[in-house]
Amino acid sequence: MNKNDNFSQNLKTALDIARHAPSSHNCQPWRVNILDSVPNDYDIKKTEESYFISVSFDDSRLLTSLPTLKREMYTSCGIFSQLLTQAFTYMGYQCDEHWFDNKDLILILSLSLTKTSSKHALKQLHITAIMRFTNRGPYEQVKINIKEYEALISDLNTNIINSQLIHNANLISSIAQLIEDYAGLDFSNKKVWQETYRFIRFDDNKAAEDGFYIRNLFGSVSWIFKQTFRFISHPKNDLLSKIVGLPNYMAKGLANLVKDTPQLIILTAKDDSNYSSLQLGKELADIWLKAQVQGLSFHPLSVLLQNDVPREKLSNILKNNEEILFIARLGVAKTPANKAPRRQIESILN
Ligand SMILES: Cc1cc2nc3c(=O)[nH]c(=O)nc-3n(C[C@H](O)[C@H](O)[C@H](O)COP(=O)(O)O)c2cc1C
Questions:
Q1: 219 Ramachandran zone, left/alpha/beta (phi>0; psi -120 to 50)
Q2: CATH code for the part of the protein at 7-133
Q3: Is 128 in the pocket of ligand 1 (CB under 6 A)?
């Protein structure tokens, strides 16, 4: 093997898969650089045949309105880097990951070609990554059976991340009540809502590279609903929004969805360090893609984890001693979801 292989084309192929990774608010906070050299003081094997790329935060894209969003930024980049690594592996690269977490730099990947590749697996990964959506609509009253659940988590690295399936109706009802009590925090905290609002794309026909269209959030709704929501929810109209009860209305709507969901899934770790949050993303990438293949959808409920009070209450309800880093509705969606926008490769690769 030598360096005249098609690395830059392969990198683009890998990015074309990884760019479909889900991220909070669809902010896609990642950036990739090809490196000519790597720092000497780190134990990274360098050979003539190695390539190095870095995965960093793109500062201008990070969500910052709450300190706890930092965890979600690491998790989002974890999902992205897992897809990237997986794609390179299927293209026949040995891919070693080096954790830096220094300023914006998160990971350096060292890549060297081997003789084993799988075009079929690469194609499947690409198709599944493109077809995976967050589905925020109602789910069928179908409980997944234990075999399906075990298949979902079969590769989970339980030294770092653990999972819990919640299908007890009383527990789901208590969690729905937490949503009803606390999901309004997303809308009533001006700084948080201002940040979220920036990601809502009200014009269906205008191309975007990030964020969500109204159809991604609410499915297909009337023009009147869209315009009314746009006006009342505008951060400048926060008083009006509170007077007409928008935060409570939104919280109640989400709580009803949760109440009617046959199961929830949580993912936990021993701590909520940056490293655990990144590893969560790597595991979540696999689980979410497997769910997609099994015909199952996810709908994260991060508002419960972003604020201390609901987070603590959730831990108490679930009697889970680990840090809860992810919670989502899980099930068979009644209607298909819509595709959210994505950044182009050129925007990610520097
Ligand atoms: C760490 C993380 C947290 C998320 N939290 C929420 C959430 O609380 N509510 C929600 O509706 N979607 C949530 N999402 C889903 C994203 O909004 C979604 O991935 C993004 O808009 C792109 O859409 P897609 O998943 O359909 O491709 C979360 C995603 C990630 C990775």
A1: left
A2: 3.40.109.10
A3: no
